[in-house]
Amino acid sequence: MLHDDLDLFDNTDSAVLALAMTAFFGQIRLGELFPDAQDIRKFKGKYNPVLKDLAQPHSAHGSCKLHLPWTKTKKNRGEDIILCKQNGAADPINAMLHHIHKNRLSENSPIASYIAPNGQRMAMTAKRFLKRCNEIWSKRGLTRFTGHSFRIGGTTFFLIKGVNPDVVKALGRWSSDAFKKYWRNLEILGVLHIELLDTTEKKKKVRIAV
After folding, report:
1. 139 occurs within a structural domain
2. How confident is the model at residue 184 (pLDDT cuts 50, 70, 90)?
C-alpha cells in the first residue's frame, strides 16, 4: 500500500518507503533504525546504522546484510539482520537502492536520512516516519499504526507465507516467549500449517534389494 501511494520522485517519500520495507522485512524495532533528532549534527552512529553498515549483496538477487550498531537486547554489541530480495513492488532491496541514489547517501550517511528541499541532509525520526505512513493509511480508511506494527507485521507476514517458524524466529531475533506472545492471525496460521493433515496410519513397506 505504501509503495502505491508514496511519491518516489520525492526525497522524503523515497526514504520513507526504503525504511518501511527495511523495518518490515528485517523485523526491526524502529528505535534500532531511526535517530532521535532531525538535526544531522546530533546523529550518533553508535546507535543507528549508516550506509557502510549495509553489506555488499551475498546472493545473485541482491539480498544483503545490515548491521545494527545497537539493539534492544544486545545493546552496543549490535546485531545483524538480513534483507532479502522480494518479488513485486514491496521489495526492500529495490526500495533501498532507490533511496541511496535519490538521497545521495555516502558511507557515513545515516540510512534514516534524506535531502530536504533546502538541499540540507536531515535525519528521519520515527515520529516523522510514522506521521507520513499514517497519512497514507488514514486515506485508505485504516486506523493509525504504531512503530511496533512493522516488526510484528513482518513476522506475521513470513509466518502466513509458510516460512519455517524457526527461521522467522532466528532472523527476527526473537526470544521464545516474545515470539509466542506476538504471534498474530492464528486462525490463518493454523489453516496453513495444520489443516487437512494426513491422519491415516500407513504401514511402512520395506524393500529388500536382491
Report:
1. yes
2. low
